[in-house]
Amino acid sequence: MKRLATTDAQFEQAFAALLNDRSSVETSVAEPVRAILTDVRARGDAALCDYTNRFDNLNLKPETIRIDADDIAREAARVPQDLVEALAVAATRIESFHRAQAPRDLHYTDSDAVTLGMRWTPLDAVGLYVPGGKAAYPSSVLMNALPARVAGVSRIAMCVPCPGGVLNPLVLAAAQIAGVTEIYRVGGAQAVAALAYGTATIAPVDRIVGPGNAYVAEAKRQVFGHVGIDSIAGPSEVVIVADAHNDARFVALDLLAQAEHDELAQAVLITDDAVFANAVIGAVEHELRTLPRAAIASRSWEDHGVVILVRDWDEAVSVTNRLAPEHLEVMLDSPEVFAAGIRHAGAIFLGRYCPEAVGDYVGGPNHVLPTSRTARFASGLSVFDFLKRTTTIATGPDGLRRIGPAGVALAQAEGLDAHALSLSARLDALTGET
Amino acid sequence: MKRLATTDAQFEQAFAALLNDRSSVETSVAEPVRAILTDVRARGDAALCDYTNRFDNLNLKPETIRIDADDIAREAARVPQDLVEALAVAATRIESFHRAQAPRDLHYTDSDAVTLGMRWTPLDAVGLYVPGGKAAYPSSVLMNALPARVAGVSRIAMCVPCPGGVLNPLVLAAAQIAGVTEIYRVGGAQAVAALAYGTATIAPVDRIVGPGNAYVAEAKRQVFGHVGIDSIAGPSEVVIVADAHNDARFVALDLLAQAEHDELAQAVLITDDAVFANAVIGAVEHELRTLPRAAIASRSWEDHGVVILVRDWDEAVSVTNRLAPEHLEVMLDSPEVFAAGIRHAGAIFLGRYCPEAVGDYVGGPNHVLPTSRTARFASGLSVFDFLKRTTTIATGPDGLRRIGPAGVALAQAEGLDAHALSLSARLDALTGET
Fold first, then answer.
1. Fewer Cβ atoms within 10 Å of its own Cβ: the N or the C terminal residue of chain B?
2. Are B310 and B239 part of one and the same domain?
3. Which residues form the active site (chains A, B) (predicted)?
4. Do A116 and B101 touch (CB under 8 A)?
């Protein structure tokens, strides 16, 4: 864990190094991923089965790539009723927030007699990648599938690796609640390839979303352009801004909730009180003694944890904007005032009773958020990821007479004579008429 | 030029080949681009100058990378007044349409006493790539810069290659009208690298937009993740749906307006009348005799032009959706009826007096549009490209009591105990209070 203070003479240098460290996501798996993509594109199901056999220790055949409806129903039925109800609470709240996001079309005629419009339409088919093994989270299924359904996507194809053939009942129950029925037991770069290019069993999709490991992220990067993708997900991170009036244990648990995700996860505390900072650090150490995932969490906290001591909250705003965190908790008396100054963050959690875990599960907004400082330019998953815009222009003779001549002048200036003629031929015809 | 008819026995096969041909954008420049990016990242301005010297035949030094204000003013002043006025007409209409796009924030408290919000904020810094040489179009400068300004981006850095050191007065005049003052005389993958990673002269940006050649497109693909990018632009394309009541010459000119862009551009006519199709084909050939860019346009028309004869307009809707064209002209009596069935298109031009050239210059909607069938999942440039969303969740004790327990159950089921504790510790404290 690093300790910084804005009063340190070396603060700027140390903070810049911190920023640079988090934003340089280097990948060394480009070549093996390229080989897998090429192979799946060429050999389809056969390649998909070969890689699944090799990487997931699962002897797959084309006819068992898809998890059939009976398997889904049987596994989902094993989930205890209280968990099904918790998933339903989450699903209802996620669906409701994403419905509120839905944008409106534009349609108006302006003073030049030109009618302009912008229409939002859903994608036809979306691929959802759900990480396998210990990171197969049912909450991720809801967070990825429900915005697509709210957007009106008619086909959602889900891929989830099943190492050793073991199905995850919670993931399948979440899929059931989210209305996803097309599910394949494949993962890794090979699953991304199948979704992007299609195989005999898996029809190609238009966009692939969902978090994954370095191979999945690189595969998404490589198929980008052929299909759409969401942001490349890196390790998760939280910035917690807290004054001394907080319970140090609450803050410590929130930091650890981030740290327990992944050894590379980053938990950052920003506070104006050195004594409180020490109390939180002590509480983290205390909780680590009993936390089940202490091995992961302590590695994350030791290697990537940061405590930044600031002079005042204005400084904290500035430091936070430079970090552009995926998650930001504001545990202050007037959290809205602080949040108003934040320009870059994936999601903000306001108040002393609103830990990030609320947003991970049941808040309603999406928990798939921009990592590695990409909140500077990227946003969390939303209905917008599953919609695209078509603009429309309608001009009749009146509109063309008014705006056409400027178009002719610009087309001629750009040396695009057919462009100019396509306008001027019509304008000439109209002049002939009048 | 290919002729297809939906009544052909081989139509499905030929049409599928056509689709596949346009969507498989293979790039062979990944390795040289990777080398350039690495070099610029390591050596900054020195590498930028070296590549500019080599590729643009321009002996650049760090102090001449930026085009100074005097140069911009002097070059812009050379543009004739009528063209300045035409640029102003275009700028006003583009700005007005993009203002209408601006989305609204969300903020509401729901029945669980949870306050949810979604805020749109502009990016801090955007890089605009403007192609050089013969493809340095002032209209592109307006189309890229104005949405960023409307979104509220405070810094716009423009890169335009200037082969042989020649400045393009129209491009600089357009930049002036769009309020862009930070302009660099560099292009290619090296310019993308400078914008993404920064050099001593060019501060890094958060997102890079604008069309470019294969090197620029590949460079954008490779820096994606470190910065945001817009869609990878491929060759331009138009689909024109026209009945026999159109002037064949108008349709021919519209096809050629697409074909004159680029040898790889694609112009497609869909009609229900074989005699009219022949008339258009004849008119294309006639116009090619005098068109200044006939060499480019005839290569495009010969190699990529397509005429598709359909039985009826329902078939035309279906064929158009599968093509997912960048531009769609609907030259029918009730174009809105036809357009209502279109699910995938970048921009639609409605009516017999609304050629695509209207939208290229003065319509208002953006002319930077998704190519190569990516309108299936992508959209034209807009204010949305320069904004990102931050979601907010605020819960007090009441809200946490209502939704917290479901979160605890899900966190425990996912094996994330610190997540569960961060909720349950607060819930326990609240129980103790009451």
1. C
2. yes
3. 326 (proton acceptor), 327 (proton acceptor)
4. no
Using alpha carbons, list the distances in angstroms from residue B15 to A254, B255, B258, B318: 56, 19, 20, 12
B125 to A36, B65, B152, B157, B362: CA distances (angstroms): 36, 19, 10, 8, 26
Query: Which of B227, B256, B422 to substitute to test the interface with A, most A CBs within 10 Å?
Result: B422
Residue B185 sits in a domain whose CATH number is 3.40.50.1980
Query: How many CB atoms lie under 10 A from the CB of residue B179?
Result: 12
| pLDDT in single tens digits along all 434 residues of chain A | 889 999 999 998 888 888 877 655 555 788 999 999 999 999 999 999 999 999 999 999 999 999 999 999 999 999 999 999 999 999 999 999 999 999 999 999 999 999 999 999 999 999 999 988 766 789 999 999 999 999 999 999 999 999 999 999 999 999 999 999 999 999 999 999 999 999 999 999 999 999 888 899 899 988 988 899 987 777 889 999 999 999 999 999 999 999 999 899 999 999 999 999 999 999 999 999 999 999 999 999 999 999 999 999 999 999 999 999 999 999 999 999 999 999 999 999 999 999 999 999 999 999 999 998 999 999 999 999 999 999 999 999 999 999 999 999 999 999 999 999 999 999 999 987 65
Does residue B110 lie in a domain region? Answer: no
A residues 11-40 lying closer than 8 A (beta carbon) to B: 23-25
What pLDDT, in 10s, does the model give residues B298-354? 999 999 999 999 999 999 999 999 999 999 999 999 999 999 999 999 999 999 999
Do residues A257 and A131 share a domain?
A: no
Same domain assignment for residues A269 and A160: no
Contacts of A262 (CB under 8 A, 6+ apart): A235, A236, A296, A300
* Number of domains, chain A: 3
The answer, for B322 touching chain A at a CB cutoff of 8 Å, is: no
Do the domain assignments include residue A408? yes
- Cite the annotated binding site of B for NAD(+) by residue number: 129, 190, 213
Is A100 in the B-facing interface, judged by CB distances under 8 Å? yes
Same domain, A282 and A262: yes
Interface test with B, best of A28, A154, A168, A417 (most B CBs within 10 A): A417
- B326, B329, B356, B367: the catalytic one is B326
Residue B46 falls within a domain, yes or no? yes
Same-domain pairing of A55 and A183: yes
ipTM: 0.94
Cα B299 to Cα B301: distance, rounded to the nearest angstrom: 5
Q: Report the C-alpha gap between B277 and B247 in whole angstroms.
A: 11
- How many residue pairs from chains A and B have C-beta atoms closer than 8 A? 402
Tell me which long-range contacts A273-279 makes (C-beta under 8 A, separation of at least 24): A273/A243, A273/A244, A273/A309, A274/A309, A275/A244, A276/A242, A276/A243, A276/A244, A276/A246, A276/A248, A277/A3, A277/A307, A277/A309, A279/A248
* Contact residues, chain B, for A147 at CB < 8 Å: none
List CB contacts (< 8 A) between A78 and chain B.
none
Residue B196 lies in a domain: yes
* Structural domain boundaries, residue A141: 44-102+122-229
Do residue A110 and residue B96 have CB atoms under 8 angstroms apart? yes
Does B365 contact A414 at a Cβ distance shorter than 8 Å? Answer: no
Q: Is A83's Cβ below 8 Å from some Cβ in B?
A: yes
pLDDT tens string A291-340? 999 999 999 999 999 999 999 999 999 999 999 999 999 999 999 999 99
Q: How far apart are CA A364 and CA B406, in angstroms?
A: 13
- The answer to whether the CB atoms of B224 and A224 lie below 8 A apart is yes
**Does residue B214 sit in the same domain as residue B304?**
no
Give the catalytic positions of A in this structure. 326-327
